[in-house]
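Batch job 17 of 40 flagged for manual review because the log was empty.
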Amino acid sequence: MAIVGGLLVLFGTRGSSSAADSGPKASTPTPSASAVTKPTPSAEPSTAPTSAPTSAPTSAPSSEPTTQPTSAPPVEPSVPVSERPAVEVYNNTPRKGLAEDVSIRARQAGWTVAGRDNWHGKIVTSTVYFPAGMEAAAVQLAKDIHVGRTKDALDNMKKDRLTVILTTDYAG
């Protein structure tokens, strides 16, 4: 398959006169085109040879697929569900039900919510607080519930779980 893909790139781009091919080196389009042929065989192996004759015009926009592989990796969470600590969610806004809504979102993402309530204090922005050794879990939770900041736990917070404090900046 790799040899066939290489031949397609070599011969498929020869007759093309696109702006991408007129660059200083002919090697610039080749890596992009080979990146195109790699996802195609894995998705549909039987259509790769069929699309070869028609791929000459489509090889010109080969710079677009190079961004696809970079967006694919965030599929698996960094902290497995079995290793996630409990979470407490606090609402530090006048918006009623916010802690409950975020608790539901956290549960749907695989987190165990141990409690939720209102928070009375001055917090600058919505934050996931983490005790020592739980920073990776805090980062994962922040991504899952769309909170933009993580920070070391405050002295009055429990040391066996993550604490989420939501402020008026939380868009959810």
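Reviewer: the log was empty due to a logging misconfiguration, but the result itself is present. Residues 81-166 form a domain with the Alpha-Beta Plaits fold (CATH 3.30.70.2390). Unflagging and moving on to job 18.
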